[in-house]
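Worked example

This section walks through a single chain of length 191. The input is the sequence exactly as stored; nothing has been trimmed or padded.
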Amino acid sequence: VLRRRHRAGRLHRRRRGPGAGRGAAEGRHHALRSRRGDRRHGDREKQRRADPAFRETLRALLGSPNPHARFSAVWVLFQAERPTLRLLPALLGALDLPDGDLRWQAAQMLTALGRLAPEVLPVVLHEARESECAVRRRMAIFVLRELAPERAETGAVYLSALDDRDADVRRAALSCFAKLTDPDLALARRA
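Given that input, the structure is written out below as tokens.
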């Protein structure tokens, strides 16, 4: 009989342990409260993004001499509203940032903007051909791979990039060429 009571007491204590009783209720309350706090923070963020003064501040940062400030402003504006051509210079400038992750984010945003505005394609073609910065030429080639891979102009950029003085640009052009489903015959022979 003693053993049964002892075992029953131990089982009872296990049920009332850290996962049950007042401690668990407090833990659930804290988790709920923190979720509400996260939700409130998200609401404040939405309000801030909708604030015209905040957007004007961000638009002013698009012309900042600090490349990271420009990128931050373009990223927030890109997420907060429908992207416009006003963001194009800052996105092009972000293609040669030292941080590779930021460059790729800029390339993805530039691709999305190019799908919304056809005026972006000629600008990216020009950057891929004639930018002085090799990193920017390489990133523009990657944007072209996503934006207009099968266009004749893109193939011509790949072909001319195979003779680029920078090895990374040549590699980028070759890897983009390898992803084409129906390459131009002259491009195929050259590659």
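What to look for: The CA atoms of residues 36 and 42 lie 10 Å apart.
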